[in-house]
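the two lines:
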Amino acid sequence: MTRQELIQQINKKQSFLCVGLDSDLEKIPNHLLEFENPILEFNKRIIDATKEYCVAYKPNIAFYESMGLKGWETLKATLEYIPKDIFTIADAKRGDIGNTANMYAKAFFETYNFDSVTIAPYMGEDSVTPFLSHPGKWGIVLGLTSNAGAFDFQFSELVTGELLYEKVLRTTASWGTNENLMFVVGATKAESLTKIRKIIPNHFLLVPGVGAQGGSLSEVCKYGLNQDCGLLINSSRGILYADSGENFANASARIAQRIQQEMAEILSKK
Amino acid sequence: MTRQELIQQINKKQSFLCVGLDSDLEKIPNHLLEFENPILEFNKRIIDATKEYCVAYKPNIAFYESMGLKGWETLKATLEYIPKDIFTIADAKRGDIGNTANMYAKAFFETYNFDSVTIAPYMGEDSVTPFLSHPGKWGIVLGLTSNAGAFDFQFSELVTGELLYEKVLRTTASWGTNENLMFVVGATKAESLTKIRKIIPNHFLLVPGVGAQGGSLSEVCKYGLNQDCGLLINSSRGILYADSGENFANASARIAQRIQQEMAEILSKK
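prediction for all of em together
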């Protein structure tokens, strides 16, 4: 999906919500365990319930990988079930030397036909650029993450006056364009967004951590929105596990709709 | 496999060679393409030819992941074929927040029964520690990598006087012990090993980049060996693709044996 197509979807749906498919056999409603493939059944119902309100789905690859072959089958069937006008993100956080990065790009862009893959930046340019040469596909590089461990290295002060994550954003941005590169920016540090927007004013940011991880939607939008919206805000557990009863999907729909309405209001005030 | 068992294997075989299974359909000998599963056939012959001379195998997960379900089946069958007294490394470079890291640990330690997994450090402590709580299993954290991109971020100078990769080694070492934690240290920067051994004198180092990536075995040993050996030196392409004819496995065996003999000599002089 191109940048222009993504922006069109955002405008049409008045939403920049991404639903994270961190689907976990231990957390889905009990009654689904009767099905032959409970996770696929769960995902389909979540997609049916939320597709009106979101512009992206983000399967967390670890949850599928941990289930072996069945997990990969479930991932493929889930992707095929997602409507074609919704952006898809393989939240895989891959990162390896050039020839290996090519293999990961092939896995997610060709074997599974995702629109984008999240990438870890530690290994530098040749680990990132193989994801940037596929038309209509995106690399989404970790800039600032929303977990406690973000403080261990990402905030390291460099002799140049930058913090490490600022250098990562600035340097990585020079390897691609805002048409093939996005960044992960953790929402629990909304104030950092002002500085981030000075470094990368035009790129889309994928913002995890609104909801279960404690970020605030209005704070993130205050500092992070740009003229093209420029944000994809993810919610996983808050939407997926809104209710554990037979009507869980209705609860998920209500939460997704509430977020979409808040987003529509924010977009209208821009 | 415990540290003690690994050291025993090294002493018994007089080798600290790791064979990287970066098995690529476009590079394996043509005559194998007739088999129902050419990659598995290739891996089995490489294992048969090299198992006397090495103490570890390291499948590069990208190469299997890019082949979809068949790739994961091949990975599982390959692992089952590796003799139980040889250390196994999932070269996966995973790294994500705590609950997701737990899922990756489950994938590689339980679903596939690897002894160890390589991990990217950018997301900090909660992305690493889930790999350190499985008895007999190991996390192998990227310290200094051997690719060109290593210079983009890993050598960043911090205000404390450290380079980023030195901080990564020092900080990460405090999260585990030398019985559950190793580090990836690129061999093409052998001089850095003196500094690295001051920071982590006792940990095992996984050293890629000897051979195709240009590192020298004797240089690496000069600076990297410790009292327990403390090195696993990887060769992938140099061994796998030593010959493309019907007798390719003999050529692979000869290369592996030559490296093992060089290692035996180095160990005897210690």
